[in-house]
Amino acid sequence: MEYFMVPAQKVPSLQHFRKTEKEVIGGLCSLANIPLTPRRRARRIRREIANSNERRRMQSINSGFQSLKTLIPHSDGEKLSKAAILQQTAEYIFALEQEKTRLLQQNSQLKRFIQEFSGSSPKRRRGAEEKDEGIGSPDILEEEKTDDLRREMVELRQQLDKERSVRMMLEESSPAPTHHPTVIVPAPAPAPPPHHVTVVTMGPASVINTASTSRQNLDTIVQAIQHIESIQERVGEEEQRRAVIVTQGRALTDTAGSDTASDSEWPEDCSLP
DNA sequence: GCATCTACCCCATTATCGTT
DNA sequence: AACGATAATGGGGTAGATGC
């Protein structure tokens, strides 16, 4: 994180970064020891960088899938393909929306009951009595109405308790959604113009954005170097193995004419001018 | 305005690995 | 062995930035 805190004067401009990038690329080529024309060499490096970027992109997509997986109810250790994760997420959202609608309806129903109860205040009741005077027995009607409401209230309360217990059961059976830290992928927001950007003039978020972009570029190059190094290592190991075989006087005749690992690794580059 | 570069996205292909 | 899922890779398309 120290990387992001460097004072503006000490932060190299992207122009400078490009220069160092070229140096790194030059180093990469010499490191790989590949007999390439400069154009092909550059192309090769660009491809490595593109591959690294693509790898990172896929990783971010996968981390998104993992985040989704933690949010949908599923049993621990259950294997879910990406397609299954998407489908189940859609189903889960649909179910949640339905439940929300149902709860909202229930809520408004309860509100209506409350209003009716508070509405049947002594004052209003008295008025009703005056109006109904002589027509029948208002007290009995009022009692019936109250009984009905009471019954409905009890039913609703039972329904609510039932819902609650079902929900508790569901929560216990399915793992609680754990919010693992997800890989934060820089938003595809247009990056500020490289040459006009200094850390001084930008807000903290922009600083992090630009710095993280540079950091990512560096990471990409480092990954490319590591990739080429690993290829070299494999080639070296292969050569060592062959040397051992030769010194032991048990060299295989077909080994001499076979392609090297590097040949198969760089087919296009070595076969074309 | 145009050519070039770069980053990003998308797709097809291939390799690998686990499951049936 | 067949099959499905996934990762890696190569290559094309495109939008935005930049230099001329």
Automatic annotation (TrEMBL):
Organism placement in taxonomy: Eukaryota, Metazoa, Chordata, Craniata, Vertebrata
Disordered, as annotated region: 115-144, 250-273
Domain BHLH, first and last residues per copy: 45-96
UniProt cross-references to PROSITE patterns, sorted A to Z: BHLH
InterPro entries: bHLH_dom, HLH_DNA-bd_sf, Max-like/E-box_TFs
Alphabetically ordered keywords of this record: Coiled coil, DNA-binding, Nucleus, Transcription, Transcription regulation
One Gene Ontology term, aspect cellular component: nucleus
Protein name per Swiss-Prot or TrEMBL: BHLH domain-containing protein
Record-level Gene Ontology MF annotations: DNA-binding transcription factor activity, RNA polymerase II-specific; protein dimerization activity; RNA polymerase II cis-regulatory region sequence-specific DNA binding
PANTHER family, sorted: BASIC HELIX-LOOP-HELIX ZIP TRANSCRIPTION FACTOR (PTHR15741), TRANSCRIPTION FACTOR AP-4 (PTHR15741:SF27)
Coiled coil: 146-173
Pfam families xrefs: HLH
Cellular localisation: Nucleus
